[in-house]
């Protein structure tokens, strides 16, 4: 009973300050809207800078603009003849404010998040490979998740504010729709009445001075002006971007006051441009802070342009179906120029020499380097000096004839040497203990090392379609989940699955962790 009385007292005090009967209603409303709109303008700026889905961007910006205009518009349209009219006006102001906050803080993030939630595969604890390697899907996933989830303290506070304002809006209206028995409410309000004026008396006082003070009017004017500025900035961005086209851009966005063409995903197709390589100045028309994904395709003699250093937001660079003649130090990757770069992808690439730009310390975020269907026969012996901490290293369907010793000196999480010509796997004994996934499928090796030099906890090890006559004991002790040996001579005499070693069950990545056939379709001639 005592706790219930404390709750009622607290709610009464909150209602006295924030409720519709409060003598401070207008002051509280304006203060709340100033904070709320400031955070929403920040989120609108972020949304315009990364959102390629036009309808969602328009909806978010439009909601913020309406929020800037709604309260002054309600004040202007209200009759304000009686206390009932003033009460109705206040209820409408709070309800509209709460609804608009709910749209920006909950409904739009849910619309962004639900498609990715539906695409997630719980059995694999990840998304399908086709999704992960789909340029448009994955780029949208990365950028839109940054809109849904906070990435900085300021971002967190700006996302939290609309939720708090929505809560206060609900608390303000809650007493008006309280359905508890009147006797109970009166009983628990006894303590509150001793120290706080009644709602009705407060409301009468506030109605008597219902005209807004000049500071309040000036603040409302600034809020309306903010909405007008947002409207002009958004329309200007739409017009300036939609009236221009840039061949190769598949994801255009609408940042405010763009100086160049704002594109998130850009493909330089040498075949369509009638050239063998990217020319100086070909990337100069792109907005520097907008480009997230860059690919070069169908280039007969690609020389990596130095202009790639101008794009600090780059997260992935792909080269497809090209001959890479030179990627020199003039176009090197570094923490100062590509601090967000996370992935390098080489598919159907002919290397005349190993890129010099990759023989130096890489950006710290770069954790995923993949080669598929290339002519690499070996790796530089000192590569581990520059590629110290990787998450993923795939060398699939290349021309490797020996297990790269430099790989054993790298720290990584996932390694694939699938589809090469490696007949001696003895160096696998020295592989990093941090390795959790490894794929050695489709190599002609006849045996594995008898033991590993350090204890391991490899979760999944792919050894399918090799030439293994026997398997070492460490497959049962250092592999924690599955060691797939399907298609080996060993399985001719062992056609049952053990707890770890599987002769029947197949490795889902038996043909490659990179979905080659799907990836090829992403870069048509």
Automatic annotation (TrEMBL):
UniProt KW Transmembrane keyword: yes
InterPro entries linked to this entry: LRR_dom_sf
Superkingdom as given in the UniProt entry: Eukaryota
Q: Which UniProt keywords apply?
A: Membrane, Transmembrane, Transmembrane helix
Transmembrane stretches, by residue range?
A: 87-117, 160-177, 218-237
Per its record, how is this protein called by name? Uncharacterized protein
Native species: Lagenidium giganteum
């Amino acid at each position: 009973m005592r706790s219930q009385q404390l709750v009622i007292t607290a709610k009464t005090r909150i209602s006295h300050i924030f409720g519709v009967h409060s003598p401070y209603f207008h002051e509280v409303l304006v203060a709340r809207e100033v904070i709320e709109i400031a955070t929403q303008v920040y989120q609108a700026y972020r949304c315009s800078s990364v959102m390629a889905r036009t309808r969602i961007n328009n909806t978010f910006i439009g909601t913020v603009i309406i929020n800037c205009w709604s309260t002054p518009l309600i004040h202007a349209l209200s009759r304000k003849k009686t206390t009932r009219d003033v009460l109705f006006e206040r209820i409408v102001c709070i309800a509209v404010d709460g609804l608009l906050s709910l749209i920006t803080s909950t409904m739009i993030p849910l619309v962004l998040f639900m498609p990715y939630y539906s695409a997630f595969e719980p059995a694999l604890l990840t998304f399908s490979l086709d999704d992960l390697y789909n340029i448009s899907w994955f780029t949208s996933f990365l950028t839109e998740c940054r809109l849904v989830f906070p990435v900085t303290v300021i971002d967190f506070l700006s996302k939290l504010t609309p939720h708090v304002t929505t809560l206060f809006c609900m608390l303000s209206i809650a007493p008006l729709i309280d359905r508890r028995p009147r006797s109970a409410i009166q009983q628990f309000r006894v303590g509150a009445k001793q120290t706080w004026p009644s709602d009705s008396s407060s409301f009468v006082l506030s109605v008597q001075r219902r005209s807004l003070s000049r500071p309040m009017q000036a603040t409302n004017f600034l809020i309306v002006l903010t909405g007008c500025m947002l409207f002009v900035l958004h329309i200007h961005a739409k017009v300036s971007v939609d009236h221009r086209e840039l061949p190769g851009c598949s994801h255009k966005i609408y940042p405010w006051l763009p100086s160049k063409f704002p594109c998130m995903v850009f493909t330089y197709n040498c075949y369509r441009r009638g050239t063998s390589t990217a020319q100086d100045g070909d990337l100069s028309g792109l907005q520097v802070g907008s480009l997230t994904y860059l690919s070069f395709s169908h280039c007969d003699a690609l020389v990596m342009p130095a202009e790639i250093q101008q794009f600090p937001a780059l997260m992935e660079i792909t080269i497809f179906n090209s001959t890479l003649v030179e990627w020199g130090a003039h176009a090197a990757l570094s923490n100062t120029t590509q601090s967000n770069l996370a992935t390098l992808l080489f598919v159907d690439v002919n290397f005349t020499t190993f890129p010099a730009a990759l023989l130096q310390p890489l950006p710290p975020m770069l954790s995923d380097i993949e080669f598929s269907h290339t002519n690499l026969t070996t790796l530089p012996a000192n590569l581990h000096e520059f590629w110290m901490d990787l998450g993923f290293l795939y060398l699939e369907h290349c021309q490797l004839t020996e297990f790269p010793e430099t790989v054993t000196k790298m720290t990584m999480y996932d390694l694939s040497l699938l589809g090469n010509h490696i007949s001696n796997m003895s160096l696998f004994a020295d592989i990093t203990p941090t390795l959790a996934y490894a794929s050695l499928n489709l190599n002609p090796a006849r045996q594995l090392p008898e033991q590993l030099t350090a204890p391991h906890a490899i979760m999944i090890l792919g050894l399918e379609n090799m030439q293994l006559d026997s398997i070492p004991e460490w497959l049962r002790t250092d592999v924690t989940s599955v060691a797939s040996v399907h298609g080996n001579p060993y399985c001719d005499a062992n056609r049952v699955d053990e707890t770890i070693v599987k002769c029947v069950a197949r490795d889902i990545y038996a043909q490659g962790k990179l979905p080659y056939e799907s990836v090829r379709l992403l870069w048509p001639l």
